[in-house]
Amino acid sequence: MRHLPARDPRPQAEGPCILIARDLTPADSAALDLAEIAAFCTSAGGATSHAVQVAYSLGIPTVVAAGDGVLSIPEGQMCALDGDTGTLHAGLEGSDLDAAIAYRDQDRAQACHLAAVGTTPVILTGTVMGASQVTEMRAAGAEGIGLFATELAFLGREQRLADEDEHYQAYRAIARAVGEAPVTLRTLDIGGDKEMPALGLPEEDNPFLGVRGLRLSLRRPDLFLPQLRAAYRAARDDGARLRLMFPMVTGVEEFTRAAQMAREVQAELGAPPLPLGVMVEVPACALAVDQFVQHVDFLSIGTNDLAQYLTATSRTNSALARDFDPLHVAVTRTVQTITAAAAGSVPVSACGGLAGDPVGAVVLASLGVTALAVAVPYLPEVRDALCRADASSLATIRDQALETGGSRLLRSLVTSLLDL
Hints:
Elements lengths: L16 E5 L4 H5 L6 E6 L7 H9 L3 E2 L15 E4 L4 E4 L3 H19 L10 E6 L5 H6 L5 E5 L14 H15 L4 E4 L27 H6 L1 H18 L3 E5 L5 H18 L6 E5 L2 H4 L2 H4 L5 E5 H9 L17 H14 L5 E4 L6 H9 L4 E5 L3 H9 L3 H13 L3 H12 L2
Parallel strand pairs: 1-2, 2-3, 6-7, 6-13, 7-8, 8-9, 9-10, 10-11, 11-12, 12-13
Antiparallel strand pairs: 4-5
Helix pairs in contact: 5-7, 7-8, 13-14, 13-15, 13-16, 15-16
């Protein structure tokens, strides 16, 4: 911001640009003007950071942890960014530029030909940033919203927190956009690399293991109760089919406390009951799922944080960006443990980067996940991959996932079996 002109804070350029920066916060990503930003590249950060997840949800091609060399690329230089391979090509001209344009156009054409039809072994739902994405989500064949991260609608505020009415308007807009389809609201998930300056929270030595998610909500009823009231008002006044999902849960007692608060709000407002569930993203929760299924209405596996905690690999450390493996055998075995413990009791969905990766989605389906919450831009590719999978191929993929796991091996196997 120090380098931007005081009178006009926007960079001056013709057409959509590739934004290059050291790193971006989730609030930065959410505020990007898609008419001006075609892609972004950072020198630091991690592939599953929340800033990248926001960009992923918006369909913005992204390269992270590219090294400080990218910061020296002159402004205005012609570049091409390939999010699939994690490559930034600088100084393109002549035949190289023509080839990049042709590759982009071919990629867009292929995406348009992926049909939103066919039978999939799991239910597909969308992960959205707002009501504006619902039309595209429906066109891709999603059955409702599997994840609406409520905090993303209010990140970046410096002074004032969202009040109950603002939450209510956001929730009813989402619910009205999807009609009769269900909407899963994840309650406030602040902490880690998602900051909300208006909260004035103290700095923590290790914020990913600190007061975040439901831990924060239980400590701050002034934040939690307005969300609960807004959701139950939307269900009462607008007939919204909402589900409430609590993040960063480690013990059953945390869930039962939150559920009790929710039911007290429901009774106070005379609202209909809402299904209550938890995100399984902490190993303590994953290994105690047999206790949770006695209390919850549904479970959703948060693949990004679960992989981070299981492998002790930071989501935001650029030095570890290439080491982060969401299909590590410890992750696949844990997913199977969760689905086995919940089988016949409650449905188990999955969200995060793994659910939106065609290969990852197939692996999750093979391990018994019953639904996937996928960022809207990636629904067609995920649906196409799942439609190619039959019982025999899923069994082969499951066996490999539980025996050795690993992104490299599983990617090769799934790509070969399903001709991706």
